[in-house]
Amino acid sequence: MGFSWANAGATLTTAALTSALTGAPAAPAQARADAFPCGAPFEVTIGRDVHTVQKCPDWSDSGRIEVYADTSVDSGAVGEVSVAGDQWYECGRQGGSVYLSGGDVGNDWWARTRANTGRWGYVSQLYFKGGGNFEPDAGLRRC
User: Fold this and answer.
1) Which of 34, 35, 38, 123 could form a disulfide with 138, with the two C-beta atoms 3.0–4.6 Å apart?
2) Contacting residues for 102 by C-beta, under 8 A, at least 6 apart
3) Residues with Cβ < 8 Å from 97, sequence gap 6 or more?
């Protein structure tokens, strides 16, 4: 899942603090609850194709989110989506990592959508509201 404004600050868990002080490995972190999961699936028709999609709450400080050809920024941008409202996404899958805020916030989950250019591609779930770092959206179907 992606970055949440509510979780923007760094937190230190008891397990991490114990690990730092004693040198013992910390227990794996539990996935955080997703306060903004994607909505119920519905269908959209594009040309002759019917796609099952979901509206997902997303955000961007620039007002737009780039859509990439594949699940990596190295695949090249094919367009963008506006974040004026919730964008629809078809499904999610893991891919390359994307980081924000000097590496403090990151995600390797991506969501398939259609860009403003009409081309299909992937948006980093870093731009999805809610959830934690390196977690998929709690409600988005998997590709």
Assistant:
1) 34
2) none
3) 106, 107, 108, 134
Residue-wise burial string across 58-93, b where 16 or more C-beta atoms lie within 10 A, e elsewhere: bbeeeeebbbbbebbeeeeebbbbebeeebbbbbbb
Domains of the chain: 36-143 (2.30.30.40)
Could you give the CA distance from residue 88 to residue 111 in angstroms, rounded to a whole number? 9
Q: How far is 73 from 110, CA to CA, in rounded Å?
A: 11
pLDDT in tens, 55-66: 999 998 888 899
Which strands form 42-46's sheet, in the order they lie side by side? 42-46, 49-56, 87-89
Rounded distance between C-alpha atoms, residue 112 and residue 120, angstroms: 7
Q: Are 89 and 110 in contact (CB under 8 A)?
A: no
Note whether 131 and 1 are within 8 A (CB): yes
Alpha-helical segments (H) within 6-84: 14-22
Tally of CB atoms within 10 A around 34:
22
**What distance lies between CA 46 and its chain's CA centroid?**
24
Residues 6+ apart with CB under 8 A from 21: none
